[in-house]
Amino acid sequence: MENKMIYLDNAATTKTSRTAIEAMLPFFDSVYGNPSSLHSAGQRAAEALSDARQRIARCIGALPNEITFTSGGSEADNQAIVSAALAGKKSGNNHIISSAIEHHAVLHTLKKLEKEGFEVTLLSVGEKGIVDPDEVRKNIRPETCLVTVMFANNEIGTIQPVKEIGRICRDAGVPFHTDAVQAAGHLDIDVSEQNIDMLSVSAHKFHGPKGIGFLYAKKGIRLSNIIEGGAQERGKRAGTENIPAIIGMAAALEEACDGIEKNAARISALRDRLIDGISEIPHSVLNGDAKKRLPGNVNFCFEGIEGESLLLLLDDRGICASSGSACTSGSLDPSHVLLAIGRPHEIAHGSLRLSLSEENTSEEIDYTIDAVKEVVGYLRSISPVWRDLINGKKNYIVQ
Ligand SMILES: *Cc1c(COP(=O)(O)O)cnc(C)c1O
User: Fold this and answer.
1) Which of 73, 176, 226, 347 has the fewest beta carbons closer than 10 A?
2) Residue 355 Cα, ligand 1 centroid: separation in angstroms?
3) Does residue 398 sit within a domain?
């Protein structure tokens, strides 16, 4: 076990599945035409593209022409939000509702729009890390042009009540976008059943390749271009289509969706075993609702610990973990998600995210529980903050 890598950072990215890799290979050196070309090589690629679009649409209950391929989740989020904002501006509506725990692809896009005169309401989530649909209802105004609330959170794994929020938006006639990057391939998605108008997906979070994703936009929703150029994607996203990646994404999404129930049962059993084991560490707390969370997400805060050193020592033991989102690592700011669920700065710095996949085993989980216990114990033994806590000079934040 010592020499083997235990990969527990599947919320950051996943291993590309064999199925996806094998599906992609012919599209590098055999079917390599440009789907916009009229000759047969191009038309073979165009057929494969159309087939992938249909298969992807089927996985989320959409129509093929409601799918726009993008470079990933970030681009899909940008395009959804900017499109709704531009449409709103035309009719004088400049108010957007979102949540405090969104991914930066959403939050930073909203920041930019604020500078351009839009007004943004960020809903709070409470300690459980879940948006209250009633808050959405209460904050919708006549000038609201978009509600964007993520399907599932990338740091604490909480699953949001998207169907209810979508219902409220539909009744109010406001478009509803959801960043489903952590949900796709892991939770059931049906855009019509769940009242979703726009939905962002990224392949590399469900064992597909990196740098590819898509934006679903319900028929009737007008998308604006982020990338200008040729007429690909019905004129909504210029650039020669990344055919191998699109084929890989279709294969990975189908594989993930076919196995959703089986994988969710297996992974959530491992997750709960991990949560139970880590909970035995004194002055530790689980972040996010214990039940309404992604099958593979575990996120804890430990009193008296620096997240950074925790990760390095776990890495020494072969465990790949994260202290929150991959995007925040390297910066000293504590996670905006942990702050939003009310964790004080001191605690938010001592966080650990372990995100599982169907490849993890119960042996790996038990090894990880022991390693986390050992490393937290060691870091506390050399921590001046911890010494103050046990000497009663400071009060514990986590009981
Ligand atoms: C990973 C992630 C993104 C960004 O997707 P990319 O394909 O890496 O651009 C957006 N939102 C959430 C919730 C994510 O987890």
Assistant:
1) 226
2) 15
3) no
